[in-house]
Specification:
The complex is a heterodimer of chains A (110) and B (193). Chain A has 110 residues and is an alpha+beta fold. Chain A contains four helices and two strands, in the order αααββα. Chain B is mainly alpha-helical. The longest helix of chain B is centred in the middle third of the chain and has 40 residues. Classes of the chains: A alpha+beta (110), B mainly alpha (193).
Chain lengths: 110, 193
């Protein structure tokens, strides 16, 4: 495989950004991940994944306006790029191909 | 809350991450808050160390090979001027039998400003946005101290009269680490995005 593989958490973060939509910054992304996985999510890990995704060109970011409830700190909004969308589709196709005809994953015994 | 914010900012945690934690902390527990703060600081240090290895190595080299030996020499010079007066004072107040542990404690206390200065200088000299170099120096120092300290603890278990030495050495290691870190956190804060 020539392209860099997408990690499990990175894929989850990309999907969470798509689900949140326009207002995708750290807090709603983490909430979306928590709601989907049922586990606590560490914001530091979310931002570390976002930094990696941005370095790969899979997401782009813009800085919003500072707000008082954040102690005057600005939000950083993220958006999945066209390359990111292609990568998600390709990963989905790969996973679906691997998933097919696996009786262990369909509740049957091997 | 303010302490957490201060620590994050001084550790070079990016402003949007700090903002997100501050925003979300209002509706979460303090355990959640400190877990997020600790992890955000760790991620910032790790990211800085892996993305700027040259800066990290420069900081460690400055701290380990330059400032720590110099500070030791300065301290020993200072201590030699004070040693005799201190012994006379301890004998005068009737605590002669506790001279060695008391001397150890005094030396630790006197060295605190020096360690703080070393931590401050290492971070300034490394030019890093986080105290990653100082944390690595502390880690190295603790790792190197482990064999000697384990020996002291085993001695104290076998012969309780060595217990004060083990305690004083343990306090010393904690105080040195905390002082170096305080100096590093005290150093200049860089604006991060």
């Amino acid at each position: 495989m020539s392209r860099e593989a997408l990690g499990n958490f990175e894929l989850m973060v990309l999907l969470a950004i798509l689900r949140v939509g326009e207002d995708a910054y750290g807090v709603p992304i983490a909430r979306e991940l928590e709601a989907s996985s049922g586990r606590d999510v560490l914001l530091g890990s979310v931002y570390a994944a976002l930094d990696r995704l941005e370095a790969k060109g899979l997401v782009s970011s813009r800085i919003g306006d500072p707000t008082s409830e954040r102690g005057g700190r600005a939000k950083k909004y993220f958006k999945v790029t066209a390359k990111g969308l292609r990568e998600i589709r390709e990963t989905q196709r790969t996973l679906v191909r691997l998933w097919r005809r696996l009786p262990e994953l369909q509740g049957r015994t091997a | 809350m303010n302490i957490a914010r201060w620590v994050m900012e001084r550790c070079g945690v990016a402003q949007p991450v700090v903002g997100d934690i501050v925003e979300e902390a209002v509706r979460r527990s303090s355990l959640w808050h400190w877990k997020q703060v600790g992890w955000a600081v760790w991620c910032a240090l790790l990211s800085d160390a892996t993305s700027h290895p040259v800066i990290l190595i420069r900081g460690i080299a400055i701290g380990w090979f330059l400032l720590l030996p110099i500070s030791q020499v300065v301290f020993e010079w200072f201590w030699s001027a004070l040693n005799l007066r201190w012994i006379l004072f301890v004998v005068h107040i009737g605590l002669r039998q506790h001279l060695n542990p008391l001397t150890g404690l005094l030396r630790i206390l006197l060295a605190i400003p020096l360690w703080i200065a070393v931590g401050w200088l290492v971070r300034r000299a490394s030019g890093s946005s986080t105290p990653a170099a100082v944390v690595t120096v502390i880690g190295l120092q603790c790792a190197l101290a482990v064999p000697g300290y384990a020996h002291l603890v085993f001695n104290a278990i076998e012969q309780p009269r060595f217990l004060p030495y083990a305690i004083v050495n343990g306090i010393g290691l904690i105080v040195v680490s905390a002082s170096l870190l305080t100096g590093a956190l005290w150093s200049r804060t860089y604006a991060t995005q």
